[in-house]
Amino acid sequence: MPRPISATIHLAALHHNLARSRRAAPDAKVWAVVKANAYGHGIERVFEGLRSADGFALLDLEEAQRVRGLGWRGPVLLLEGVFEPRDLELCSRLDLWHTVHCDEQIDWLAAHKTNTGHRVFLKMNSGMNRLGFTPESYRSAWARLNALPQVDEISLMTHFSDADGGQGIAAQMACFAEVTRDLPGERSVSNSAATLRHADAVAASDWIRPGISLYGSAPDYPEHSSAAWGLQPSMTLASKIIATQSIDAGASVGYGSKFVAQSPMRIGVVACGYADGYPRVAPTGTPVLVDGVRTRLIGRVSMDMVTVDLTPVPNAGMGSEVTLWGYASNGSVLGIDEVAHSVGTLGYELMCALALRVPVQVVD
Prior knowledge:
Number of strands: 19
Helix content: 25-40%
Radius of gyration: 23 Å
Number of domains: 2
């Protein structure tokens, strides 16, 4: 039989989470963000769960071609725009909307030969200091684009650096509003955190851009859990116990002997390791479910195995179900954010790190 580890993508959860975004912004259209291969889930796997979105936002032309290949005829937005002039040819052919964040992209558009005007999203750097035109140069960039016959319509966008934290969005919102106050065009400012946390951003958005929330992860964990936001996990990573050991007090477990038993205990060996995408740096105490019962990881994560404490589940043994994150068969849920927090990272990273060798099934 195959190795027992597997990932499950839950289409019903994706549909639910998309509907949750719509409830937060009932007057806005929704970009379903599927960059990074749909946050590690697989674009083709999530498509049916997200196809009620108004458009798909992603990173590069290969992803855009895959979405078009699935039969999607609605809007597709390149969030970082094009990377070289010839990319615009595919934008024309596939009717892709694209972000413009620098003068070079305007230069490329000016030289592009097309019979079809492009829909562009002009990005402002309102404080994130990654991509976008400064507030001082934004209006001149808009004027350049507006003068080009290659451009059909200009939308306006920015991205918040602190929508998930205490600093908030007020300064960036004020900057964006001031610079764009009399410019025509639809606005897009709200990512997952802004959509869920900031009504003023939602009110200013003709398009919202939910990403991580679509996949059931809270954008501001641990302040809020996914359940607190009404989100459902879209991915389960599960395996089984493939061996057990009974060890005495003073015995160590795993590489480096980092875990030492304080009393006699029984442990389970699970078919999951860092070669499957489970984080190598996960410490002793990282939560895990065995037969739907919460317990903990002990010792170091190996390439192909982890070890877990079976004290809370004395009847567990060979073949017992192990939930690394997501849903257990008994309905218990281990949120990916909780696992990520134990590791010192975000649910985003765990989703995106799922290894190719892990079999994936899709359920509705």
